Fold each of these.
Amino acid sequence: MIIPDYQPFEGEHCESVAIGNLIKHQGLELSEPMLFGLGAGLGFIYWNMKSMPLPFLGGRTKYLSQNLCENLGITMEVKETTSQARAWRNVTEVIDAGKPVALQLDCYHLDYFTKKIHFAGHHVAMYGYDSNNAYLVDTRQQGSMVETSLENLALARSEKGPMSARNKSVSISFDYTDIDIKSAIVRGIAKNAEEFLNPPIKNLGYKGIGKTSKEIKKWFAGSSDLKGDFSHQAMMMEKAGTGGALFRNLYRDFLRGAHELVGADYLKIGYEKFTMIASKWTEVSGLFQMISETESAEPLESASTLLSELSKLEREAMQDLHDAVIG
């Protein structure tokens, strides 16, 4: 079963692409930045475990789809199971009813991924299947409308390890005529600001960025492969968005779109601040790449200083948004 004449939602970030496909298919047209902002998507996490080859820098909230659906009044049904047979039925039942389904999986096993790295926090939308293949929508970088074998899809969905889920699938239902985007914009900003400014641990939010400014010096001192480690981090930050400019670009564009709809001055000011912030994240990833190429501590010091500055800039920008919508 392949949904006839399927029109994909295209974008740069895997989870907003996945949930965006489900929302678009039911008739609600929103841009990727608007989805990201309405889902209170901006965040930061510094995560390091002994089992991980490199620390993970995350630039968004863990609950983007959940926040988005709650804010817009969308019913979201999430299913997880350790049974391969049940996991497959959870998917086919939705697609056979004519609706796409979102999946969380490990991209390592997907046929179309050319760089084979284990990352179990990847998201795709699935709009069809036949006896051999699953038909998916991934990010533009990965080709948008793609396919993978059913065997490899099953492996990707059931992979264990950091950030993995138990064959997770998501479907939604809603009446888009009931949605008030202007009110949802204010709610989304308020929730995002509250979470970013009040992290429960120092690894999150603006505090996590400040912690990263110190921790990168430890990476440098302890790395046995400076070229590979910092090149990988630079690529992940800038291209995959984990802590880098991609998510700041999305939030910047959300604020611009919100200003066009709502017209409030604080949204225009926020847009201008995040324009500057996003460019500084691109500088950080560039410095990481320079460390990889030179194995020198000089760009490391510059990156550390810039991350410390970004921690303060993002705190101030989010505090201003918080004060404007909540007071």
Amino acid sequence: MVIGYDAKRAYKNNSGLGNYSRMVIGGVAKEVDCVLFTPSLKGRHEHYFDGMPKVATRVPQGLWSLAPSLWRTLAVGRNAEREHVQLYHGLSHELPYFLPKGMKCVVTMHDLIVRRYPDFFKPVDRLIHRWKQRHACRVADVVVAISEQTKRDLVEMMHVPEEKIKVVYQSCDPIFWCRGVVESWSRGEGSGYSLPSRYIICVGTVEERKNQATAVRALAQLPEEVALVIVGRPRGSYPQEVRRVAKELGMEQRVVFLEDAKFADFPMLYHNAVASVYMSVFEGFGIPVLESMCCDTPVVTSNVSSMPEAGGDAALYADPMDADAVAAHLRRLLEDPAFRQGQIEKGRTQRLRFAPEKVSQDMLALYRSLLDD
């Protein structure tokens, strides 16, 4: 079996779609040959696949190197045919044009946020995303949804036939599953961060949809010795809104922004937190919920979209705009050690549903079923 992948995100993106791409490819490449098609090897993870003998990478050559984005859209099909690819998987909402007739193809749809919340996107980006999604869902043999929520959205908002959709949950980066480094997480060795002694962590791009302002409002109701550490890159004007809320509530000294935290340090940052809070208004899956559970950090999250799927009975839920309810959950985790430990134990069970090995085997089973048809 030879699987071709759109690997642009795997090399370039540090979170979200990049983590998903690396997780899928890395797991599948333990068993079958994989050919990665990427417009460039340059990026945050240019050496990630080094040492994986079943992985080969292809980049545009000749005149196509002058137009790598067009190569990714128009020429990858012919390249895939030359590489004897049997199945091509677009890992992030899109598939190239002109894939060879008879070559099976799969696309992963993470969410339909561009359709649900169009105002979060620039008009031209909105148009491009919708166009790519429509093409990919039309030509794919199977559309992989990363949650039941995404599957419902595909049926309701894009009218994709339900029988064409397969839910294959995602995992989080392998770094969160390395149990042998828990001691170093606890000590925070060499972290280089000046962290408060007792803090709640909130991980995610600082943007309106992630809704960090609710976490700040909840913090105002908690003991003064507790801080909030917001880990994520700023996007647009929303970070200024979060800072305004913190100032208005007198929380400026208790809210710490880590905009450039190293991804390798995320497990330590989670593990040393008293709790994690993730009050996004909508997610295709909600990776920080799983990351929290993998780091033995109790999590409070939104009761909407896919978060209850990710958290199961291991998370505590509230309306994403209800700071009082969020504060009540956090207060209980802060004040009741036995309850907090119980949530940690539930998280250890819940996270097994999304273990990388399980996700890889589910994806391989899907590929084999397609190729056996």
Amino acid sequence: MQTILGSGGAIGIELAKALKEFTSEIRLISRNPEKINPTDELLSADLLNRDDVFEAVKGSSVVYVTVGFQYSIKSWKANWPPFISYVIDACKKHNCKLVFFDNIYMYDSNYLDGMTEETPINPVSEKGEIRTKIAQMIMDEVEAGQLTALIARSADFYGPTIINNSMLTETVFNSLSNGKKANWMGSVNFKHSFTYTPDAGKATAILGNTEDAFNQIWHMPTASNPFTGKEWIETIAEEMGVEPKYQVAPKFLVRIIGLFVPIMKEMVEMIYQYDRDYIFDSSKFEKRFNFVPTSYIDGIRKIIETDYKK
């Protein structure tokens, strides 16, 4: 049995699709889980309840964490550390291997131009501090020999059928498809990597089913040579057959918008990722598994074909 905690999000869905290549025993856990594959086992659970987490992972050989809590520092501080402690304890009790799907918020902002698994850890945001803490909780248990686990890190992601989960979807794809200007934070002149969610799902499934992949950190396969913000907007607009109109929101404007739009308030501390090159290196995974990431143009075309063709 392989279990996904937080099965309803963009990564959880793609992971469930990919896991069927390795097992027919897949358990999906969320408040209101829905089947992805015909044989999926569904279990409704409150993942902030310790007993529910223990029950959810019981009998599992591998547990994948793809849950996403409300995108606010208040929610993250209150929810992430206790949840991860429950998962660690449950996996130790039930002898489950753990695969934690992570982001790059903990990386030193001076080293975003070519991020690898060895990039220095030095968070510059409160959200980054939370991600640092929970990743360290996991790796401390690994180093102590108490837990078999791995961390799968992704850049910002994009992909088909993502609803309200991708900044690129919300600010560019949706805006352009509705005849509005695309929005971009910081500056459109810097390169920005995005991880394609079907690739991330496949890669996470591969890692969870590869014995020697555990007890280390992996970057999810992500196309190299990313577009600048301007190139992202222009390419998406060209594929949609619309004008590449856009507006840029510098930090002071994001702060003002945040007074009225809660999600934008949360983006103020993250805008540093858009005022410099943000380039994600996944060569470790690509070489180990002979995996070729989906190209940006193919990813864009698939998203438009899936979500925007009328």
